[in-house]
Amino acid sequence: MALTKKKQTNGTATKITWKEIKRQKVLLIWSAIIVVYGLIFCYFPLVGWLMAFQNYKPKDGLLHSTFIGLDKFKQLFSDVAFLKVIRNTLAMGVINLIATFIAAIVFAILLNEIRSKFGKKSVQTISYLPHFLSWIIVTGILHDALSSSGIVNELLLKFHILDQPLNFFAHPQYFWGIVAFANVWKETGWNAIIYLSAITAIDPSLYEAASIDGAGRWAKIKYVTLPGIKPTIMILLLMNVGNVLNAGFEIQYLLGNGLVQSVSQTIDIYVLKWGISQGDYALGTAAGIFKSLVSIILIVIANQIAKHNGDERLF
User: Fold this and answer.
1) At residue 62, does pLDDT exceed 90?
2) Separation CA 85–CA 254 (nearest Å)
3) Which of 75, 89, 286, 312 has a CB 3.0–4.6 Å from the CB of 231, allowing a cystine?
4) Rounded to whole angstroms, how far apart are CA atoms 65 and 59?
5) 9 pLDDT above the threshold of 80
6) What sign does the dihedral 89-239-186-253 (CA atoms) show?
7) pLDDT band at residue 267, thresholds of 50, 70 and 90?
């Protein structure tokens, strides 16, 4: 007995039969596993969002906790500390986005200009190794390098830029820059991989035509390489805009201290503090919902701007 459902593909009708389903059974099984995984670990936990609208008590559970509406959200935005947390998260998210995004593009273009295959592969391999280091190791390196007796202070003293060692982690004005530098150092090589792939997909004849017209390296980058990877840049930019409020947790938590607490606290740390440490799960959930909602709004706005300008977009 054949399954006679038809599917329209590019103006032509194709029949989907049981024979076709059996032929693709491995693909369908793996697809089903991924769908089930997504439902269990991505969508089913969203039921926990109900806690944000309840005076949640673990002993009462979701079904028996008292419904309080938007009281937890009102409590959030009446808390001056939370408003500072939003400022810190947004500022670090934007700085990280700009720094890592530009650094990855520039690094990929410069790496592509290396003529030696051995040198190119060696630099690329070394550059993305920091991606596999945990933030514990990265923050340990930062602490050693930026300590009073670290290499940074030694160089600054040697070149007479400073008269005495500087404790970088005691001054709030340096914290966001340190976080941005750490993200750039750790992720630039890894993020550049996709741009290198996009560059290799550019038709070599375009570079040959540019050479015939007398274009040098910088002209080829400007008129061939950048336009060739523009679709990739736009798609990744739209995806990363939604992660602006995912400014980080580990690095801020590990590098933060009482002296820089006013600029180091993020929404994730706030959720940890109130949702887990203080046992106010409803307040922590409300903060998490706010973060997710802002991310969705940012993606939609950025996508509409890209659509209006005729650029690549997500949907």
Assistant:
1) no
2) 16
3) 312
4) 9
5) no
6) positive
7) very high
Rounded mean pLDDT, 219-245? 90
C-alpha–C-alpha distance, residues 113 and 106, integer Å: 11
Helices 175-200 and 117-128: crossing angle in degrees, nearest 10, is 140
pLDDT of residue 14: 54
In this structure, are residues 281 and 268 in contact, taking their beta carbons and an 8 Å threshold?
A: no
> Which tokens is 171 given?
């001054």
Q: Which residue, 179, 150, 185, is CA-closest to 166? A: 150
| % of the chain with per-residue pLDDT over 90 | 59
Q: N- to C-terminal Cα distance for the chain?
A: 38
Which amino acid type is present at position 111? Answer: L
What is the 3-state secondary structure of the chain?
CCCCEEEEECCEEEEECHHHHHHCHHHHHHHHHHHHHHHHHHHHHHHHHHHHHEECCCCCHHHHCEECCCHHHHHHHCCHHHHHHHHHHHHHHHHHHHHHHHHHHHHHHHHHCCCCHHHHHHHHHHHHHHHHCCHHHHHHHHHHHHCCCCHHHHHHHHCCCCCCCCCHHHCHHHHHHHHHHHHHHHHHHHHHHHHHHHHHCCCHHHHHHHHHCCCCHHHHHHHHHHHHHHHHHHHHHHHHHCCCCCCCCHHHHHHCCCCCHHHHCCHHHHHHHHHHHCCCHHHHHHHHHHHHHHHHHHHHHHHHHHHHCCCCCCC
**pLDDT(10) > 80:** no
Closest CA to 232 of 192, 205, 203: 192
Contact 225, 109 (CB under 8 A): yes
Mean pLDDT of the chain: 88
